[in-house]
Design a protein that fits this description.
heterodimer; A: 323 residues; ABC transporter involved in vitamin B12 uptake, BtuC; 2 strands; B: 294 residues; mainly alpha
Chain lengths: 323, 294
């Protein structure tokens, strides 16, 4: 079986397995846990497209998350749009913001820490703007009215939302799989590994990176729209604050950048860790982020290839011994 | 609106803030110039220094200015240890790793502060908090708070000290050698890891000094560093990455721009102005306003 078919088969098994698990689970707590873990995985996968496969480290991915969230909320509240229609709009808007930021920064050759800084600065600008303009509800935030029903994308139970985010995660997995086996993906990874060499070989790095930031931003925007549907509330701090940017980035790095399953594994591992600490220490402000930060530093110190890479090292060690 | 009696105090205010900005940016410039990395934990480290000054005053009654000989060496040791024990070990020779590690450190510091000190905004009371000094230059006069005046002078003295250390001492020569040519410096017998750690330590020591000068006229909360961090990056980029005199001028310029911008456009829009300026400089003139074309 080819590598592509093997990966597609695994994605199918994952999708069916989690869907079955969700139908078996009965307790709201367990359903909520799976839903939040999948949601975190979606953000990490979005970051991974640009950071892992494109090598462009964004420190401000909340920029796209917040844009998707605000479009989702405003289109419903002001435009009276059905949430199912609002969501693609939010995804498009986030991808558009991605193209805008990408066009500005890649045109002038910003990379590495400069790109990280620019994304961070853009997220800050958007946060301050969202705090001061009227249509975002400023500091008070926006409330999406409760209208339960499948047609309104308000499922009443966590199971519906978990299935929905599972769909988004599977879509992100498929797109990542495509990146691994398509011409565009090969270009993107060539630009990541050596931009000059890629250019010499006839790749247009600007266009390739622009495509990656649009894809990455689109999935992040879907995450934002999903957040609004679940919690029915958004404010500038949630939308454009550093927390979401960090969550996306740490999940991808902990699991393993530039891998298919890494972000999923990383997000799940972080989520289990966060849940354990909540049980141990209770709901203390900041404790989750402390753990995220410590895990980030430790992973880079001891396992820069992420949990996936760690697993591979152990397997290679095992194989070497059994020979 | 453009009356001199309003503009002049605002200008003075901007210059005093700008001097402290410059001091913070000088620490960042030193770290960037030598290690070629952007220290994302700079703002969080400043926040820690501010808390140190705060608790020295509240718990031990130490005056912020007298806390200088405690906080500056303390921050130096913290910086030296962080670089030697964490950042250097985690880098694996890749700049991206350093970027991510300093981001991780800033997340840890900020949220530990949130955990232990809560999100309350705290200020200190000193005998001179409300003292003002009249300044008269003939065509205009202004009343300026004494702590701001001290901060202005102190920040300039500290900046001059830093420039002397880098320009005139053996350590400074070693730092400049490593910044220019790491491998050559190593061959000449310079302990590169030690120089890295010294630079990081001195960079953070600048924050210690800035914190002592800031707090009497400022406040501290776990997020306070965030406001400074982008301003400091803006100044470093504006001054031409790695240039000390550029950072000093850039700091004063940003202070004045912020103060005048706030006066003319309102507080929150003035803040956006700095971010937009930052983005614009990064995009169109990454070598800085005063830097030569790379």
């Amino acid at each position: 079986m080819s590598a592509l078919k093997k990966e597609l088969l695994r994605i199918a098994i994952f999708a069916v397995g989690v869907a079955l698990l969700l139908n078996l689970l009965d307790s709201g707590v367990a359903l909520n846990f799976v839903m939040m873990a999948l949601y975190a995985a979606l953000l990490a996968q979005a970051w991974n497209i640009l950071g892992g496969y494109g090598g462009q480290f964004s420190f401000g991915h909340a920029l796209f998350f917040g844009t998707g969230a605000y479009v989702q909320a405003i289109a419903q509240i002001e435009g009276g749009l059905n949430p199912w229609l609002a969501m693609p709009l939010g995804v498009l808007a986030s991808a558009g913001v991605g193209v805008f930021v990408g066009a500005l920064s890649f045109r002038y050759g910003l990379k590495g820490s400069y790109f990280a800084l620019v994304t961070l600065a853009f997220a800050e600008v958007f946060r301050i703007v969202a705090l001061s303009v009227p249509f975002t509800g400023a500091g008070v935030g926006l409330m999406v009215p409760l209208r339960e029903g499948f047609g309104n994308m308000q499922f009443g139970s966590r199971r519906g939302f978990a299935l929905m985010v599972l769909g988004l995660v599977v879509l992100a997995l498929l797109v990542t799989c495509w990146l691994r086996h398509s011409r565009f993906g090969a270009y993107l990874q060539a630009v990541r590994d050596n931009e000059d060499a890629a250019r010499a070989a006839g790749v247009n790095p600007f266009r390739v990176k622009l495509g990656a930031i649009a894809l990455s931003g689109g999935f992040m925007g879907a995450g934002g729209a999903f957040y609004v549907q679940v919690f029915q509330y958004i404010d500038p701090g949630i939308a454009y604050g550093a927390h979401t940017s960090v969550e996306a980035l740490v999940g991808a790095i902990v699991g393993g950048m530039g891998t298919l399953w890494g972000p999923l594994i990383g997000a799940l591992a972080l989520h289990v860790l966060a849940d354990l600490t909540r049980n141990l220490f209770g709901q203390l402000p900041g404790i989750n982020m402390v753990i995220y930060g410590v895990v980030l530093v430790l992973m880079i110190m001891f396992a820069p290839r992420g949990l996936g890479g760690l697993g591979r090292s152990v397997r290679e060690l095992w194989k070497g011994r059994s020979k | 609106m453009t009356d001199l009696s309003i503009l002049f105090p605002s200008l003075l205010n901007g210059l005093t803030t700008g001097a402290v900005y410059a001091l913070i940016a000088l620490g960042l410039t030193l770290i960037y110039g030598v290690l070629h990395i952007i220290n994302f934990a700079h703002g969080a480290a400043l926040m820690l220094a501010l808390y140190a000054v705060y608790w020295l005053k509240e718990a031990a009654g130490v005056d912020p200015y007298l806390a200088l000989p405690l906080v500056v060496p303390g921050m130096f040791v913290l910086g030296y240890a962080l670089q030697r024990l964490v950042i250097n070990r985690a880098s694996h020779g890749k700049d991206e790793n350093i970027l991510l590690v300093t981001l991780g450190l800033s997340i840890v510091m900020e949220n530990l502060a949130l955990l232990f000190f809560k999100s309350d905004t705290r200020t200190i009371e000193t005998a001179y908090t409300l003292t003002t000094v009249p300044i008269n230059i003939g065509i205009a006069q202004a009343m300026i708070a004494l702590p701001k005046l001290v901060a202005f002078g102190g920040a300039l003295v500290a900046s001059a000290t830093l420039m002397l250390i880098v320009g005139r001492t053996d350590l400074g020569r070693a730092i400049r050698a490593v910044a220019k040519e790491k491998h050559g410096a190593k061959l000449m017998g310079i302990d590169v890891d030690h120089v890295y750690a010294m630079s990081f330590g001195i960079g953070l020591a600048c924050l210690g000094a800035a914190a002592c000068f800031l707090l009497p006229a400022y406040y501290v909360n776990p997020q306070v560093g965030n406001g400074f961090v982008l301003v400091a990056f803006t100044i470093v980029v504006l001054g031409g990455m790695g240039s000390f005199s550029g950072a000093l001028l850039g700091g004063l310029l940003i202070g004045v721009v912020e103060s005048l911008g706030g006066l003319l456009l309102g507080e929150s829009l003035g803040q956006i102005g700095i971010f937009l300026l930052f983005i614009a400089v990064l995009l169109f003139r990454p070598q800085g306003l005063f830097g030569a074309k790379a």
